[in-house]
Amino acid sequence: MLVKSIEGLKGTDDEVKDEGFVSRRLILAHDDMHYSVHDTEISANNELHMWYKHHFETVLITEGSGEIEDLGSGKTHELKPGVMYALNEHDKHILRAGKDGLRMTCVFYPALVGPETHQEDGSYPLYNREGEILEN
Prior knowledge:
About 5% of the residues lie in helices and about 50% in strands. By secondary structure, the protein is mostly beta strands. The protein has one domain: Jelly Rolls, CATH 2.60.120. Strands 1, 2, 3, 4, 5, 6, 7 and 8 form an eight-stranded antiparallel beta sheet that branches. It has a two-stranded antiparallel sheet with strand order 9-10. Strand 9 (about 125) and strand 10 form a beta hairpin. It starts with 5 loop residues before the first helix and ends with a strand. Keywords: Lyase. Catalyzes the circularization of gamma-N-acetyl-alpha,gamma-diaminobutyric acid (ADABA) to ectoine (1,4,5,6-tetrahydro-2-methyl-4-pyrimidine carboxylic acid), which is an excellent osmoprotectant. It is an enzyme of class 4 (lyase). One of its GO terms (biological process) is ectoine biosynthetic process.
């Protein structure tokens, strides 16, 4: 059994800060669950262009508000607590946090290793469990 707390991750290597957000990584590849779970906060009025070309992601909004724009369809969806979205086709998207920011629980498959930050194209590189990059 694994038991971790968000508070316990603050200031550790499992708290990753990137441009405009902080991700506290509760479950990672080394936990042998085949997926990873993150508590992520996006700062107020921030806009992130993302494309998880190597990962699938499911997100549940827990605090704040904003919107997600699907760049493939052009559709924009409102985000607020209780709303879930899943990037089931490696969807290119823009995530926009509102005036109060956004907090969300994110699940990635395959599991992240831990140090991942967004590349220029908005994706995370694909790492093996030893921390070596397999694909950019």
